Automatic annotation (TrEMBL):
Gene3D superfamilies named among the record's database cross-references: 3.40.91.30
Protein name according to UniProt: Restriction endonuclease
Length: 540
């Protein structure tokens, strides 16, 4: 497989014109099974190319990209590689449209160039001297200097116990930018040259199996990091959290509302910057100073407070081990925030996280939602969230004003919620769980009681059971129950209700229009594709 792949490398790169522009570069002409067949790429080529030994070689031994040798500069090659990986790893699911990625990497380089100056570092800064030495040697930074820098990183980092005192490639790039040796990305008002360089860097990383194209019909050009390699790349980048998610964590956790804790962090980590007596500014200074979240949590947050945080958000961590709790908190605030956009309304958050709430994936449910519910334990909290999310979608997305939540607040034999529309009633029940729901005899008995009780006064036309997924037997059991009670029993997967909500918003929603509940008419498992056709007929 490696020989096969390398034959394409020779064709694509070694014989390539060093001045080639991406306008003339046709990746399609070089595609083979490793690219055109996603399954072959992930299951056959990538594992062979990205073994642990090869990853070590590609990441730490600095084999330069091969398209045009990225302007024949190994140093530029490393810069572009770092920028691409740094941007990708901060994206939801580590995927990003290629055009947006190129823009993001270009912006990252511009910001770095504009923000750095020699005055930012003391004359005794050893890494600044190392950067100057690398520049002075033949006025070009190449693999030998990069090896020297990497070896120095290892020596320096091994001599320090705290991660916040480690050197990373970003530190080195900051010094080079201060020396005016960072690759210029704004040589003209239209810096296409830099865009060509970055795009070729993406293709090089794909050849190295560190980055792959995502074959998704809903998007045009996406790239991503294979999930198995994320941890390796995180280690290489010393990556824990994006700055944005770091700020959100500090804003969310009560412990960082305490002035004494923030002042302790300032003193311990040598944080500078004016705060004007405001905790908000103190938190911002911590982020700007580059204090690692892990070091902050371990050194200034008492262990009992760490336990409270783990309990509050239902995180899976060994409460006797500080390291486990810190890792769980960081992972939660990094992963759960990736689906949250600033300024989103509550109902939008519910729609985005609906599947994660339904299957009980605590680490993917944003704290903004968890904090809306006051419950004694995480399981109860997620049960309430699932009911609240369903109610919000019916009421605010589908514009169903006759929606009433019942489950947690009501007593007696009631479903989780009900909706009235034109003298007809729909009842629903949420079933949050990690496994498929099978609709056993106990559940069928309860649902029959719900329908019988409500049916004494009203016409119950539909009963929805909303769960992450259902067993094959559940559909059979739903049919039997339907024949018994004379009401449509619909099994609705969380992903399908979410898809229906997105479809309704995009195609049919308006202030004076409700979703017709008859869209749920029928038996067994609800299909959003069928509903889409029905809605098109209704509103054509």
């Amino acid at each position: 497989m490696d020989r096969n792949w390398n034959s394409y490398e020779r064709k694509r790169f070694i014989k390539g014109d060093t001045k080639i522009k991406t306008d003339d570069f046709d990746p399609e002409a070089f595609k083979h099974d490793g690219f055109s067949d996603r399954e072959a790429y992930l299951e056959t080529y990538a594992p062979a190319l990205a073994t642990e030994e090869r990853l070590e070689k590609e990441l730490n031994n600095f084999t330069p990209p091969r398209i045009g040798e990225i302007n024949n500069s190994p140093y530029q090659a490393l810069v572009i590689r770092y920028g691409i990986l740094h941007q990708l790893i901060q994206q939801p699911d580590y995927n990003m449209e290629k055009v947006d990625l190129i823009d993001a990497v270009q912006d990252w380089q511009r910001d770095l160039i504009q923000s750095q100056d020699e005055d930012n570092f003391p004359e005794t800064d050893d890494l600044l001297h190392l950067a100057q030495a690398a520049v002075d040697y033949k006025n070009q930074i190449n693999d030998s200097e990069l090896h020297m820098v990497f070896s120095y990183f290892q020596l320096h980092n091994n001599a320090h116990d705290s991660k916040h005192e480690y050197y990373t490639w970003l530190d080195f790039f900051q010094r080079l930018s201060a020396l005016d040796r960072f690759p210029k990305v704004s040589r003209s008002d239209s810096p296409e040259h830099a865009r060509d360089t970055i795009e070729k860097g993406v293709w090089s990383l794909q050849e190295q199996a560190l980055v792959y194209e995502v074959d998704d019909p809903d998007y045009d050009e996406l790239v991503g990091i294979p999930e198995n390699y994320v941890d390796v790349i995180r280690d290489w980048l010393y990556y824990e959290m994006s700055d944005e998610n770091y700020r959100q964590m500090l804003e969310t956790l009560d412990i960082f509302d305490h002035q004494a804790v923030l002042i302790e962090a300032r003193d311990r980590f040598g944080v500078t910057g004016k705060n004007y007596g405001k905790n908000e500014n103190r938190r911002e200074n911590i982020v700007q100073a580059g204090v690692y979240p892990s070091e902050l949590l371990k050194q200034v947050v008492p262990k009992d407070d760490l336990k409270d945080i783990v309990d509050e958000y239902g995180l899976d961590a060994h409460k006797l081990k500080t390291e486990d709790m810190v890792s769980a908190i960081i992972e939660y605030f990094e992963q759960s925030q990736k689906s949250v956009e600033e300024g989103k309304q509550e109902v939008d958050l519910y729609v985005d996280a609906f599947e994660d709430i339904a299957d009980g994936a605590v680490t993917d449910v944003p704290p903004q939602l968890q904090d809306l519910v006051d419950a004694d334990n995480p399981s109860e909290k997620l049960d309430i969230l699932f009911e609240d999310a369903t109610g919000k979608i019916f009421q605010e997305v589908f514009n169903l004003e006759g929606t009433t939540q019942l489950g947690q607040q009501a007593s007696g034999v009631v479903a989780d919620g009900e909706i009235q529309q034109d003298a007809q009633w729909l009842l629903w029940d949420n079933k949050r769980r990690r496994q498929e729901f099978r609709l056993g005899s106990d559940a069928r008995s309860k649902i029959k009681n719900y329908i019988d009780t409500k049916g004494e006064q009203h016409n119950v036309e539909w009963f929805l059971i909303i769960a992450p997924d259902f067993t094959d037997q559940a559909a059979t059991n739903a049919l039997q129950l339907e024949m018994q009670v004379g009401t449509d029993i619909r099994l609705v997967r969380a992903e399908d209700l979410k898809a229906l909500a997105e479809l309704w918003r995009e195609e049919y929603a308006s202030d004076d229009r409700e979703l017709p509940l008859s869209v749920f008419s029928g038996s067994e498992i609800f299909k959003v594709e069928t509903a889409a056709g029905w809605l098109e007929t209704q509103f054509s």
